[in-house]
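ASSEMBLY PREDICTION REQUEST
Request ID: AP-0331
Submitted by: J.K., bench scientist
Number of chains: two
Total residues: 829
Priority: normal
Notes: Please return the full assembly, not individual chains.
Input sequences:
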Amino acid sequence: MIVEIGAFAVILSLVLSVLQTGASTLARIRRSPVLAAVGEGAALSAFAALAVAFAALVYAFVVSDFSVANVTANSHTAKPLLYRVGGAWGSHEGSMLMWCLALTGFGALLAGYGRGLSAGLKAVAVATQGALGVAFLAYTVFASNPFWRLADPPVEGRSLNPLLQDPALILHPPFLYVGYVGLSVVFSLAIAALVEGRADAAWARWVRPWTLAAWSALTVGITLGAFWAYYELGWGGWWFWDPVENASFMPWLIATALLHSAVVTERRGALPGWTIFLALGGYTFSMLGAFLVRSGVLTSVHAFAVDPTRGVLLLTILGVTAGLGFALFAWRAPAMARGGMFAPISRESALVLNNILLAAATATVLLGTLYPLIREAMAGEAISVGPPYFNLTFTPLMFILLLLLPAGPLLAWKRADAGAALQRLWVAALLAALAAVATLALAEPRSLFGAAGLALGVWLIIGSLTEVAERIRLFRVPGREVLRRLGGLPRGAWGMTLAHAGLGVFVLGAVFETTWKAETAEVLALGQRLEVAGYVLTLEDVAPTLGPNYEAEQATLRATAPDGTLACMARPERRLYSAGGQTTSEVAICTRGLSHLYVVLGERRTGVDGGPVWLVTGYWNPWALLIFLGPGLMAFGGLISLSDRRLRLVAGRRAAPALAPAAKPEPVGELT
Amino acid sequence: MKGLGRWAAMACAVLCLGAASDPGERLADPAQEARARALFKDVRCLVCQNESIDASSAELAQDLRAIVRQEVAQGRSDVEVRRFLTDRYGEYVLLKPRFSWANAALWLAPLLVVLAGAGLLIRRWRVPPPEPDLTSEESAALARLSQASRSDPGSAS
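STATUS: Completed
Returned structure:
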């Protein structure tokens, strides 16, 4: 019964979304507040209906209702409750339902909180959001319905892939989807701006918070995915330039570019066309990601679960939505005002340069992901584009971007003094140079890439803090004045500093880990040892253990630090999930400061003397923690910015005019 | 949302942990072994989704590792080893696409995007944006204001 309510609620949500689109479109044409209210009401109800549907699906998973095809395919009674709940969005159908939940949820937010928007702009945005919902809801109802019943229910389900039975992976999709689909609001606002024929500062101020929210969620989602890969896949890697990773990374890059270009549009009224273009691009890349991941087009040579029919449908949704959006752009954008002028050396130029490099980086990732398909379609030749390609193209682009980054916030709008900005950065430059020299002198093996990377990380962190120090006039005015200024800094400024410094933290971790990781693999009998980066791992015991839905072999290894003290007892496992017959590895991670000692238990073999031996691999991943802390800081910075008074969603009007203009004489920018 | 493809690929990887560093497969000469390991990272495990033979434990990856190690042990250069592999398995086996005309778009695109962007930016600096034409009401208001300020400078505000 509850499952039927869920199935009904999805259809209801679809109908309400159609109503939302129709009523809001008519409201714009007839300038009717009544119809606009109907459209907004429909948006709120569509979300409510879908929330009911989603709850029904979770319920079906929790009680293991195997008469539902989706539950049978993805759940099992022996699975712990957390993973039964998470299984609701672990499958294709469930994840598309979650996508719809996010779409209608953002539609409801737009309808409920869009008070500061002009009536026409809001009506078009709500109508567009409704249309985006219709496309995906119709897909869910007709082609990927998670509530379809089985005529002949089995006694037991086939269970979720054990690799996905992990807390990080339960949280990963919701964050990722909020991020992907958060960009749909920006898309809708862009369409509204094109229809209304204006993208001014007020419009840009509306785009910023939605982009920030989506960007923060995407950052968390991608980091969780990388962290999961790091500890669950068991070979110490965290980013593989896998098509699925690229699919989530491209919207992030576009959202990052959009955050920066929207600042220019908001503050200076410049580049409205480009900002709209990026706003359309963000959600387009989100849909492209959904298509790439869900259709299996990039794995077509293999027999993995792919569904060509669904792929074609998703491609159609992508093509029609993006096609209409960009056609409207081509038609309306040329008529838009270009905004104010700026000199070659100015904050505007710096932000445009940021956008050029991010656009080039996105193009690189896109081309690298799709090029094998293109070559195969055009010439019938199969090629591979793997990590070496991205290391040679993406990394240099990012290097240039990050090298220029600290100077950007120090430049004034319209016309800036590059010399003065660079002069302020002398502390950062000095410390970066020291870091490079120290790295070259001390780190073994010597690595130029490692030294340059560490210098870049220091340059980013200190450079970002320099901007704050400049604003509070550190060491130049008395302490009390410094504190007063510190307290008066807008949260947006803190957010920017945190995000930029977080990037530096990530660079430090990524470079250090990649350059100086160490790995040792040995076949060990009980009592034998292996050494990695000065740590000695002694295999003390291997014992069978029993989990809720798996059997495991658990090893106990004593890890001794280079100074002879006990570092930790590492207990890696090798699990066999009986429901699907898969084997997984549960790595043991000892955190030593910022670094990880990472121990993996491999297969059991027979030794030379006939006794059992085990393949044990120990990795030393120096500063690995920073790889995940950095993006965490960035997302936190995004949230802090989001809480800035000037960006608050409800406060449509700007609080700034209340301040006398004389109160902000700083040439150093106020908000980013 | 890391979908089916992803975890299928990962499942493939997980089954063969620490694959490439398995002591049973290693070459005796550490320098040669290091070279072989570096080569592994550029060679695709043909039956996996998007993995190098360095990470994969699939049987085919094991065979390919054996081939690469054998070639390295016989003193072949990196280029020769790669050519040997592409002759047998096609360009698909290389994770780093070759610099060739067919791949020109792939390798040059990042540079072209940067150049195009830089070109647009430079044009933006050079050409001042057209002044928006005043609407008739605005011109009327301007005329009124300038007249008013000329006749009575004290009251203009």
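REVIEWER COMMENTS: Chain B has six helices and no strands.
SIGN-OFF: pending second reviewer
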